[in-house]
Amino acid sequence: MTSKRIRRKDLLSGCSDIGPQDGIDPRLDRPEDNPAAGDRKQQQLCGQVARTLASLFAGECGDDVLRDLLVESVVPAPSSARLLVTVILAPTAPAVSPDMIAERLDRARGLLRSEVAAAVVRRRAPDLVFRVVQRP
Hints:
Layout: H1 8-13, H2 37-60, H3 64-67, E1 69-76, E2 82-89, H4 98-107, H5 109-119, E3 127-133
Parallel strand pairs: 2-3
Antiparallel strand pairs: 1-2
């Protein structure tokens, strides 16, 4: 039985000019802007956390200030062990200072993290860091 493996000499003899990318497996040559599999999992986790927090803020939270919050984004900071949650006050909500919102979020951090841990199946629940953005 003959070998089906192509030798490098035979591969390079088929081209007129040999370049720096010749002989490299195209599966290993990926553009830098293409997200890797780990990034997809981080984005999936951030989406799950955003949906969980949005539902908590929508009605399951006992604080009137936190009920008026909307989740703007959830991103890894710097990894999926710690997530940066950006929240904004709803347009229909009465004006509340960002310091008061940050204080209320800090008080409810344990409850929010435990609810996220129950909704997201992971070995360790991610730490949540909140950033309050004022509406324009």
